Amino acid sequence: MTIFQLLILLCATLAAALLSASITWLIRPFLLRHALARPNARSSHRVPTPQGAGIAVIAATLLVAGTIIPYVGTQDPMMPLALFGAALFIATVGFADDVKSIPVLPRLTLQALAIGAILFATSTELRIVPACSIWVERGLLLLAGLWFVNLVNFMDGLDWMTAAEVVPFTGAMVVLGLLGELSLTVSIVAAALGGAMIGFAPFNRPVAKIFLGDVGSLPIGLLLGWCLLEILYRHHLATAFLLPLYYLADATVTLLWRLARGEAVWTAHRSHFYQQATHGLTVFRIVSEVFVLNVGLAALAIASTLTRSSATSIAFVAVGSIAVAFVLHRFSRQR
């Protein structure tokens, strides 16, 4: 860690937070008139609320990171271009879906194009399992990326929920960057995204004055997924598993249960564990517990990265998994 890197990351976080808050405040009156999210089967809100603050979060993230990265330099200048272009593209898809719902198949196809662009721009020298065919590996990563982008969207169904996930996640990425475990480019993107979410959070505190919308949740999922990919390419498997573990567990278990019950999994619903918890717990209590859980998972992920013992990493994964299972069980009991 150097003082220069620390200052760069602090500046990225602060600048993105201020810019995100400013843009959210400026665009809210427009969204209030033209982009109201009306309550439906999936909603946790009871009154129409403007959506689209993801415009501010993504704009702040890309503007700040896009300004700082060329200044400090990067070993692979094509990757930030591909990443930012894909984030803008998938944000556009999300905005179109916010305005007028896009059918499932075209929506997934467009999302896959954005994810594929990032994988295509990734050097073929970067491998997770070298023994596996690169085409098989990239194909599996495309499917995993598609699921991850959508599960982040699925989990954005409660005030402050996405902030409770993104802030600890990106905070851990920044710490890992300062410890030399990730490149400065990855750390800058994480710092900018975390700062942008902090700037948005006051507007989304329960009861929210504005929502992210798909224009925010989809590109946020894409950026977080890219961060996980960078961790995987450095073979920190336990770290990549622990950081998004709550989101992965809640969304994946819910999907499997709905499939087992023969439900149409592409339709709106309120089956997620955090949604079940609203029957007995306040929104603030739910997101507070998720935030504390994610801080714990972030700490375990950092510790797992620093340890060189496979047995210790497995123990950290076990501890994180037990903690997530406990929270999911607690939430499900509120049903």
SSE inventory with pairings:
Elements: H1 3-34, E1 36-37, E2 49-50, H2 54-72, H3 78-99, H4 104-121, H5 134-155, H6 161-178, H7 184-204, H8 214-233, H9 237-242, H10 245-260, H11 273-276, H12 283-306, H13 310-332
Antiparallel strand pairs: 1-2
Helix pairs in contact: 1-2, 1-7, 2-3, 2-7, 2-8, 3-4, 3-8, 4-5, 5-8, 5-10, 6-7, 6-8, 6-12, 7-8, 10-13, 12-13
Protein described:
This protein is mainly alpha-helical and 335 residues long. It is built from 13 helices and 2 strands. A two-stranded antiparallel ribbon has the order 1-2. The chain starts with a helix and ends with a helix. 47% of the residues are buried. The mean pLDDT is 92.
Round the Cα radius of gyration to an integer and report it: 19 Å
> What structural class should be given to the helix and strand makeup?
mainly alpha
What gross morphology would you assign? globular
Fraction in beta strands: under 5%
Kindly report the average pLDDT value. 92
Number of E-state strands: 2
Low-confidence stretches: none
Main beta sheet: strand number and arrangement? 2 strands, antiparallel
Strand order of the largest sheet: 1-2
- Along the chain, the helix and strand elements come as HEEHHHHHHHHHHHH
- What is the terminal separation in angstroms? 47 Å
Q: With helices defined by DSSP (H or I, 4 residues minimum), what is the helix count?
A: 13
Helix content: over 70%
Keywords summarizing the entry:
335 residues; mainly alpha; two-stranded antiparallel ribbon; globular
